[in-house]
Amino acid sequence: MTGKGPLTHLIPVDLTHPLPLERWFPADRPLEVEIGCGNGRFLAARAARNPGVGYLGIERMLARVRKVNRKAELARLDNLYVYRLEALYTFHYQIPRHRLRAVYVFFPDPWPKKRHHSHRLFAPLFLNALWASLETGGEIQIATDDLPYFEAIQEVFANDARFEPAPPMERDEAEQTDFERLFRGQGLPIHACAYRALPAPEPPFAPLRITPDMEPKPLPGRDLPDDSFDKGDDHAQDDEP
Ligand SMILES: C[S@@+](CC[C@H](N)C(=O)[O-])C[C@H]1O[C@@H](n2cnc3c(N)ncnc32)[C@H](O)[C@@H]1O
User: Fold this and answer.
1) 64 lines ligand 1 (CB under 6 A)
2) Interval between CA 14 and ligand 1 midpoint (Å)
3) 110 CB near ligand 1 (under 6 Å)
4) Residue nearest to atom 15 of ligand 1 (CA)
5) pLDDT in tens, 131-169
6) 3-class secondary structure, 151
7) What is the count of structural domains for the chain?
8) Which domain holds residue 69?
9) Does some domain include residue 236?
């Protein structure tokens, strides 16, 4: 046995190559992605207003994925799709290079405790994948209620010469996310920033390296930091607005 025969015992799902996005989004139209799109309020409003633009939500909670799907079905939005997977992994392996015109991240989980900072999305590893996914001149728009995380996000971008600051977008009421409406209703300040991808040398592709400090660690009373993902279902609704 050489081990080079047909791969009859391989489960044929390829999660390490770019998604064939042209199956859902015409290749000649702009594509925008919202990471952690929650219930899809922003995406659905945006997709209805811009039928010539494709919108992809990336969200790991199944209950929220279902809600986005329902919104797209009810409004017959053929330019809106949602993908259930972890965002860093998706950007690193599955978004084709320089395909995205815009990326939106509204109210990302702030992981306020120092020992959990390694779970934050905004870190050099994500910026590598983000830059490789954006068109030159493409933008990321970010909003958060959490000032320490906001400052940390600004620092990560300030240390990466492949991005320059851009004007943060305005969102009218129809495009505000559920968390944004909750925080605005409580009178909390919303911090926003945006960055534009600049021309830079193309980085070689390297496998994603998860260091031991990035591994999910059990929390008291919970199986994993975010049990919604690993139980694969609708249990964790505790941060629902
Ligand atoms: C605080 S909620 C904000 C939801 C929405 N953006 C809003 O403003 O209403 C954060 C969302 O991001 C999702 N999320 C967090 N980390 C993620 C990751 N690494 N990949 C995909 N989704 C993620 C969570 O499941 C959750 O729905």
Assistant:
1) yes
2) 24
3) no
4) 36
5) 999 999 999 999 999 999 999 999 999 999 999 999 999
6) helix
7) 1
8) 32-210
9) no
**Reported pTM:** 0.89
239 touches ligand 1 (CB under 6 Å): yes
> Quick check: is 231 in a domain?
no
Q: Determine the straight-line distance between the first and last CA of the chain, rounded to whole angstroms.
A: 57
Query: What is the chain's mean pLDDT, rounded?
Result: 89
**The pair of three-digit structure tokens given for residue 2, joined into one six-digit string:** 């050489």
Q: What is the pLDDT of residue 238?
A: 38
Tell me the pLDDT tens digit for each residue of 165-215.
Answer: 999 999 999 999 999 999 999 999 999 999 999 999 998 888 887 666 666
Cβ–ligand 1 contact at 34 (below 6 Å): no
| CATH code (residue 95) | 3.40.50.150
Buried b / exposed e along 97-108 (16+ C-beta atoms within 10 A): eebbbbbbbbbb
Query: In this structure, is residue 170 part of a structural domain?
Result: yes
Residue 236 has pLDDT above 50, yes or no: no
Give the catalytic positions in this structure. 109
Angle at the Cα of 46 (from 42 to 52), degrees rounded to 5?
155
